[in-house]
Amino acid sequence: MGRMRIFLRYAICFPAVAVLCLMLPVAAFASSGKDSIELRVEKGDKLINICRKYLEDPQKWRTVAKFNRMKNPDLILPGQQVKIPVGLMRGVLLDGKVTFVYGDAKVQKAEKEEWVPLRLGDMVSRGSSIKTGKASSLEVTFEDRNSIFLKPDTTLSITASEKKGSNYTMNSLYLTTGRIITNMKKTTGADSRINVKTPSAIASVRGTEFRVSADHEEAVRTEVLTGTVTVSAAGKAVELHQGEGTYVQKGSAPVDARKLLTPPIPLDLKAIYKELPLRFTFQQTTGAYSVRGLLAKDREGRNVVEDKVNEPPRSKLRGIQYKLQQS
């Protein structure tokens, strides 16, 4: 085997869930700021004219009036502040840019069109579907610097990507299956929202980094690395804070927030491994159901060589064995 630096990453989620396990169908909303923008009324302005200029559907002017608690929508005065809900505003379409790609990553620009390879620097537009193959990964970064990172064997659709007003961006995604990491950058003077949807739940996020996964059984796991996330399903909402997670089965409410377990302690970790297969053993962590280990060529875990879940007996030490081909 030629010389190649390999990094080992491992983590455990809350009891009965592995941190990096396949997450299930979910819908997630991520918001880093306010849900409305303020406009200053100028001389001669009327509410209906403002709505015609800024709203996707100008007929929603009554909603704007109610939002501002206007007693008389026909009477607005110069200097008055009118708040417009961002969700009602007309948007300008934005594209995402491929800022990292490793292995087999493809895009389908429209339904029923051919899947074509994605390369670094390619643009991904609204209506596109993207997917990664085995031992592959992909990062797409939007204009507001928010990004989504697709793990191996993940399929995701970009249902909306637009800028509303001068500083508000909204990206809506649909996770069919696989695992993603959503990272919202903290920027000055800009508000943004990322919606990650799957068939089973909705997760509302505010200024955070979080993981969502969906599997073929349409179950969902959401894990919060920073910030706050609210996961809603079947009429129940669960608020998650940093270091917490929840699980949603299709048709059921999310379980109460659970503390993510600390990563397992590696035993007999060597500085250099000279023989194949490589074998790593971890000390057991109480309450853990499984351990997912990643072998990668970089510290960030992007260039994945091997990705494996291990579920040994709970009474024994946890071992993960990787068989790497000679290269």
What report would you give on this structure?
With 327 residues, this protein is mainly beta. The chain has two helices and 25 strands. Helices cover 5% and strands 46% of the residues. The strands form four sheets. The chain has a 17-stranded mixed sheet that branches. Strands 1-23-24 form a three-stranded antiparallel sheet, with no helix packed on it. The radius of gyration is 23 Å and the shape is elongated.
Q: What's the N-to-C terminus distance?
A: 5 Å
Principal-axis shape equals elongated
Number of E strands: 25
Fraction in helix: under 10%
Count of alpha and pi helical runs: 2
Tell me the radius of gyration: 23 Å
Order of helices and strands: EEEHHEEEEEEEEEEEEEEEEEEEEEE
**Which residues sit in consecutive blocks of at least 5 with pLDDT less than 50?**
11-33
Strand content: over 45%
Instruction: Characterize the main sheet.
Output: 17 strands, mixed
List keywords for this structure.
327 residues; mainly beta; 17-stranded mixed β-sheet; 2 helices; 5% helix; elongated
What's the gist of this structure?
The chain has 327 residues and is mainly beta. The chain has helices spanning 47-54, 61-67; strands spanning 7-11, 27-31, 36-40, 81-85, 91-93, 96-102, 105-108, 116-117, 123-124, 129-132, 137-141, 147-150, 155-164, 168-183, 191-197, 202-214, 219-233, 236-241, 244-249, 258-259, 266-267, 278-282, 291-296, 304-310, 318-322. It is built from 2 helices and 25 strands.
